[in-house]
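Query structure, 122 tokens:
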């Protein structure tokens, strides 16, 4: 499985609660609806908790500001990921996702990482 980790910062002016509510509500519903068109077989949201602890660890280690959440988006293979992100048939679904993401994600401060898991423990 190939996974996209979409590390998210919320748009300025949104509280963490507002960001999480929109992400886990209307946006999650949209992802569920378009998943078949873009080849998504797994979608997990990791919502930030304990912001005070994150800020303390950030200061201790000299890290950048913590993300507000991470979306974990799974595809069966790299070819499936390419089809879902590059195929013209998936373009309408991708455009709809991008338009919705712009409502609550600070895109300029967010990041995407493509990964393949390597189990170490468990």
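Result returned for the query:
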């Amino acid at each position: 499985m190939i996974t996209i980790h979409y590390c998210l910062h919320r748009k300025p002016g949104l509280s963490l609660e507002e960001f999480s509510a929109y992400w886990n509500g209307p946006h999650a519903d949209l992802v569920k609806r378009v998943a078949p068109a873009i080849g998504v077989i797994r979608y997990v949201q990791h919502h930030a908790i304990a912001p005070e602890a994150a800020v303390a660890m950030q200061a201790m280690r000299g890290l950048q500001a913590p993300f507000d959440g991470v979306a974990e988006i799974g595809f069966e293979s790299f070819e499936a990921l390419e089809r879902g992100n590059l195929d013209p048939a998936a373009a309408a679904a991708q455009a709809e996702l991008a338009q919705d993401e712009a409502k609550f994600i600070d895109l300029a401060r967010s990041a995407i990482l493509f990964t393949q898991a390597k189990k170490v423990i468990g």
